[in-house]
């Protein structure tokens, strides 16, 4: 059984979908803890499922590195096989990435390497493209530059706003994440091989 720690910053809609999947006895992964960098609304989803939560806020630390050390300690306490960034809106310090990667993955609401960064949906609309997408990647020290594990295109429709487009990307993102976790848990996907290539 694959042990997951999920990190969030917001409402946790992707987390909720993952909790629903993991609650199925046939799903080969379990979320053992959920962490956040603030008092995120999505922590309530974890609490509803009886999953332990922790918050490590950067404001409580003198440096980003010190914050990263504490966050890493909190994660490692749960001995996860995989750490999932799901709407976690902070760059991790290099030492933390080195300690966890390649068993450290992130979802992104664009078809990488197109539109990296915090505003992937907005940037796609501003660029006037006819399609964008969703991606799951291994986290490295760049901004959404790690090896791509899975991705899928999503059309941009006439009249789309940032909200309507994001609402169509989210289900695709969730399904990609679910499938990636399933593939890792069943041995169909080796993150070490992906990171090496």
Task: Characterize the structure shown.
This protein is of the alpha/beta class and 197 residues long. It folds into 2 domains: 1-100, Rossmann fold (3-Layer(aba) Sandwich), CATH 3.40.50.170; 107-197, Rossmann fold (3-Layer(aba) Sandwich), CATH 3.40.50. It is built from 7 helices and 7 strands, in the order βαβαβαβαβαββαα. A 7-stranded mixed β-sheet has the order 3-2-1-4-5-6-7, with helices on both faces. The longest helix has 24 residues, at 162-185. It starts with a strand and ends with a helix.
Care to give the gist of this entry?
By secondary structure, the chain is an alpha/beta fold. The chain has helices at 13-22, 43-48, 64-76, 94-100, 120-127, 162-185, 191-196, and strands spanning 2-8, 29-36, 53-55, 82-85, 104-108, 131-138, 148-155. Strand 4 (82-85), helix 4 (94-100) and strand 5 form a beta-alpha-beta unit.
What is the strand and helix layout of this fold?
Blueprint: E1 2-8, H1 13-22, E2 29-36, H2 43-48, E3 53-55, H3 64-76, E4 82-85, H4 94-100, E5 104-108, H5 120-127, E6 131-138, E7 148-155, H6 162-185, H7 191-196
Parallel strand pairs: 1-2, 1-4, 2-3, 4-5
Antiparallel strand pairs: 5-6, 6-7
